Amino acid sequence: xxxxxxxxxxxYKYPDGTVALSDIDLSIxxxxxxxxxxxxxxxxSTLMLAMAGFATGRGEIIVKGLxxxxxxxxxxxxxxxxxxxxxxxxxxxxxxxxxxAFGPLxxxxxxxxxxxxxxQALRTVGMEAMAExxxxxxxxxxxxxxxxxxxxxxxxxxxxxxxxxxxxxxRNREKLVGLLKNLSQxxxxxxxxxxxxxxxxxxxxxxxxxRIIADGDAKEIMxxxxxxxxxxxxxxxxxx
Amino acid sequence: MHSxxxxxxxxxxxxxxxxxxxxxxxxxxxxxCYTVGPFAVLVLGRxxxxxxxxxxxxxxxxxxxxxxxxxxxxxxxxxxxxxxxVFQTTIGWMRCFAICGKFIVTMLALIALVSTxxxxxxxxxxxxxxxxxxxxxxxxxxxxxIFVLIDTAQHLLRARAGRTLRNLGPKQEMKTASAMxxxxxxxxxxxxxxxxxxxxxxxxxxxxxxxxxxxxxxxxYIFGVFFVVFxxxxxxxxxxxxx
Lengths: 240, 243
Fold this sequence. Notes:
The complex is a heterodimer of chains A (about 240) and B (about 240).
Chain A: E1 3-13, E2 19-29, E3 33-37, H1 44-51, E4 58-63, E5 66-67, H2 73-79, E6 80-83, H3 87-90, H4 96-106, H5 111-124, H6 140-152, E7 158-162, H7 170-181, E8 186-191, H8 194-200, E9 203-208, E10 211-217, H9 218-222, H10 225-230
Chain B: H1 6-21, H2 28-34, H3 36-44, H4 49-73, E1 77-82, E2 85-90, H5 91-116, H6 119-128, H7 133-163, H8 170-201, H9 218-242
């Protein structure tokens, strides 16, 4: 399978000098559902931000054949759609329609095409009836789904989600699992929830202290009790 | 009322407010007639009047301070006739009642506008009427994140209340309050940075693009005609009464 993302010897330091990522080598293939697992502060979110060009450091990241550098950022951001941890940061427009339309409008689509994309994205997440709602009137689960719709409307080939299951009740988490499983795009999900990760991922990358500790089949890694315990994680209870 | 175009309602509210403000301070009876307009909108829009009066009460202290200062600096005596009765009062008190009356009537119009119009539509309407894009963006963000900020502030207050077991005195309370404000400020900066990343992630390059989906319908024209007839009729009625 073709490589969608290729990271070669990538390291990143925060402005205060703290090392966030060290010598990361990782390649993700088209259509894979990759879960980035690891304890809090392991560097999962930073790695995700680096893949979308929001954290530039030493080394090389290539997304769909485009090296992450200033001249390619515009194109890269149409290829990789990012959903951040707090949906309130993602939903900044007065209505859900405007939020979902924000990306396609910036991509230069005309009004009719934008409307079509918005309708399609909202239908995918089951929120077509809520287009005119203000984001602050949505529940936590609805906000999460709406945040995903904001990137779906841009038809990205890769979707990166940071802790998408955070603050969701079991029913909404189940709905989200169903939604993510049905997406055809390459998925990169950063999470600490092993049950959620096991339900979606077919490949797991265990990150700790900014380094990749293990990379391989999701079930093999997550059902390795010794490995999971060593890095402060838990073995998933079951796989959906 | 809710489905009317935001621009029509906004223009009506601005004209109505300007007309009410320009009424002479002695024309209480005419001012009373003007309340019919916003009341009709509120009733047709099914806005609970209890809610309306609560909102008026909430902002009234600001205007009351101003109004109640009038009798203090203008004590010129004046006689006013109310039907067959004649009362002796001062110009200051007249001014005070006029300010309060105009405040209530214009607040009714403002509440009628905001309770029957979605904020997003109001912003879109203002944008279509040529209000600078930057101001519209600022207002949009303010409205969107004021609720997030209030939520965060409430969480902080709750966390403080949960650990405040005795009165620590004004000095310590001030110290705590300033630390909380500082925390709120730092969180706001963090939120702003994350929103900026989210915007860039969706292709934002400093050029704000939105779809303005407003359309003037027949109902808007009907409302406009009613409004113009109402304002003109009251104007002629007022001129006749005042002369």
